[in-house]
Amino acid sequence: MLVVDEAHFVKNPEARRSRAVAGWAEHVERVLFLTGTPMENRVEEFRSLVRQLRPELAPSVSGTHGAA
């Protein structure tokens, strides 16, 4: 199991940190993201976190479903 604290720091898929987490995640059965800030400014930031955990669900995350 991989536990990623402050997971909002891996929202940029091009960043070295994000690539490292993605690489580690390939070698474990479960990944747990912990963050108090899943979305700071845009829905795309949350979508990026979802993409890391469940790529097939990322396209369904949009700014029109339940965003206030």
UniProtKB/TrEMBL annotation:
It comes from Streptomyces sp. SID7499. GO terms for molecular function: ATP binding. It comes from the Bacteria. Residues 1-56 form the Helicase ATP-binding domain. This is Helicase ATP-binding domain-containing protein.
